[in-house]
Amino acid sequence: MDVPRLFHPPSKPFSQIALTLVLAHGVAWATPANKKSAANHFEHFLPAKLTDCTLCHLPSANHTPESLEEFPHNAFGKELAALGKKSPLPERLQKVAKADSDADGVPNLAEILLGGHPGDAKVKPAALTGLPEKETALAAFLKRYPWEPFKPVKRPALPLPGVPNPIDAFINEQLAAHSLKPLGEATPAQLARRIYMDLIGLLPSPQQVAEFEKAHAAQPELAVRQLTDRLMDDPRHGERWGRHFMDIWRYSDWEGYKGAVRLSQPHIWRWRDWIIESLNANKPYDRMVQEMLAGDELSPTDENAVRATGYLARNFQSDRLQWMDNIVEHTSKAFMGLTMNCVKCHDHKYDPIPQADYYAIRAVFEPYQVRTDPVPGQIDVAKDGLPRAYDKTLTAVTYMFQRGDERFPIKDKPVAPGVPAIFNGRLEVKPVSLPLVAQQPEKSDHYKAAMLAAVESLADQELREMKRKMLGQQLELETLEDKGMSKKSEAWKAMALQVAELQKQTALIEARDEKEKADEALKKAIATKPLTTSVKKTIATAKTNAAAAAKKLAAAETAMKAPAKATDYKPRTVATYPATSSGRRLAFARWLTSPQNTLFARVAVNHLWIRHFGVGIVATPDDFGANGKKPTHPALLDWLAAEFIRSGHDLKHMHRLILSSAVYRRASASGPATANDAVDPDNVWYWRAPLRRMEGEAVRDNLLHVAGLLDPTFGGPDIDSATAETSRRRSVYHRHAQETQAEMVQIFDGARPNECYQRERSIKPHQALALANSQVTLDASVALEKRLTRETGADYNAFVTAAFGHILNRAPKADELRLSTAFLQKEGRDSTRLRQHFLGALFNHNDFITLR
């Protein structure tokens, strides 16, 4: 939750104001945590009229109450409160179930189930009809697998024996419980299309579909496994899943004005390439996260690990307070599924997270800043560099803000780095000593090599030879100094004297060269006719430069006349950073990815599920707390999390497991309405495969891919999004920031750079218009027409069949073939244009952008 800079704290907490306005008038909100806890305990068994705070409370007699205590309990609430607030509400509800709090002759649980009121004797059920059935149903409901996200991950037992894939055991259990009959397997062509899109984001060719169909007919399980393995070994797999994780981790290219950076960092594309490369290498997920949060502390000499801290560099914002808010909020959401942003101003209203926990996490990140280090082959970081994190100081202090207002820090109570108390964890923070190249990156071997290469590119031979000699000896002396050579030693003095002499000679040559160029520029300016105002300004500037060059040359000549001394030696000026990092982020990263954090693996596998099924087992991937959606299959989620941990956080293993399951391979269409549709119209229990639509990047990429126009070049600097209509590069490489994004990608629900834990899904009229009129579609239609015409000649049936195969990955139905060939044979129309229009129409077909 972003807190405005000019936020003025109210005289009363928001919760008190809200309860004052609502409870005092007889219509109630509940205390949020208890209201949510009661709703979660009873779920659909709790009547709507009891979902507010009148379940336990009476209105306040004071029209301007100052605290929650001024809202008295009713009889039911008193009995619950008497059991102690430290006892979880569900346990207290169980203990008072058979009691009769309001003494109206009906037990509390019976009143709740039958629509009475356990705290108001005037409101009781007229009869107890149906009570045994409801009590039995509630008892069975309460015995379901418990969703306990703050307890350690444990592998649940498989509910059904003899099921080849454990995922299906959990899915089938719920199908049976809801009397649902699952559909059979999708056709091999549909399955091939689904697997190709899920793993590399590009459609299969007709030949690839045919090859899979043949393999599937012989050995279905083996065919799926071999295709899965082959596509996960394809470098395009990293591009596909890199974009998914870029959503979750809020990838954004830099934003700013006239070179002033406001958000993210220039050259942040190096982090994007690290993501893609790491996924292709199947780097363990926990290691990826550790490197993103603390690669500079974990492996300070490993450029790949340091490159990963682009995650932290991306979170840069010119407003430091907002920067810190963002890093706490989105690190918590991405890796723990916790809305820690709600805790900046007050204790969490739904989860047992005190306000102090927000600042404990902020303290982890308080010391860090961002910088850009030089990269091989380039000494100018403005042209290219490595954006990364580092700790600027070891003494950074974090204070809590009164009600989240940064104008009022509580300075007598500094907050130590830590983790949410609910996890019962602690950080083992140890400062990290950094090697020389981390302290002074311009002393790296590749930077020295780039300096020497720059010398070799000089046109002036005399200057080139002198600078080569001078720089070589200067770097040699610098290396010896770094290894401990004393500046008082005779060896140092002798070397320093040699370098000083070479520096003076180099300065003289450079000054002469500069004087010659300045004099030539002045001569050229004076000769310019006519003598306009602009020319006069040029002459004046040239005279100033010539005078400065003459002065510099005179100084260099004077310096050469004096004997050189060791003290004349001028060492290189290099950027210097702290020799020690706080170790806070490394300690946090290790805790975050450990079993002590009960949410890390659960959140990760839920994100994988979303990208394969369209919706998560937990539908709110950024909120696993009490205010988020409860999982549809909690036992399955825990089993997947346990398996993920057991595998060493192996992402490809989890893909392989999911794609080999029957639930993944299920057909998506059932034809006319069935009994399944009546029981589960939203497919909550996965009796069929969900229908999904391509996201914007996949739509654009596949237009180019199907037409044979997609440029397979891997990685590199971001490409101007304004060229997305003409560029042939994959969409993941186009510039992506709040102020500049590819238009077609955004129309088809592209990622929001500020926050995108799952894509929005929309069907809008202008999506069809974009597909019809996009230059990408037009170019793809022209290119594919040439290719198919070359392959099929004048055979209209073959042309249509080939077009359906390439674009929709299926054969045309009889009526589609008849109508299509009739369209292609219209008299008086250019046949080439007709074929191009026909292909454009197929690209706009629902089956092109839909995964069945």
Question: Could you list some keywords that capture this structure?
Answer:
globular; two-stranded antiparallel sheet; 852 residues
Low-confidence stretches: 1-30
Secondary structural class: mainly alpha
Number of strands: 10
Q: For the report, how would you describe the main beta sheet? A: 2 strands, antiparallel
Mean pLDDT: 91
* Helical run tally: 35
Assembly type of the chains comes to single chain
Gross morphology = globular
| Structural Rg | 34 Å
Instruction: Report the β-strand fraction as a percent range.
Output: under 5%
Q: What helical percentage do the residues reach?
A: 40-55%
How do the strands line up in the largest sheet?
1-2
- Compute the separation of the termini in Å: 38 Å
What does this structure look like?
- By secondary structure, the chain is mainly α.
- Among the domains are: 12-142, no CATH class; 264-438 and 580-598, no CATH class; 442-568, no CATH class; 775-851.
- It contains 35 helices and 10 strands.
- A two-stranded antiparallel sheet has the order 1-2. Strands 3-4 form a two-stranded antiparallel sheet. A two-stranded antiparallel sheet has the order 5-6.
- A hairpin with a 2-residue loop joins strand 1 (255-257) and strand 2 (260-263).
- Helix 31 packs across helix 34.
- The longest helix is centred in the middle third of the chain and has 37 residues, at 490-526.
- The chain is globular.
- The chain starts with 13 loop residues before the first helix and ends with a strand.
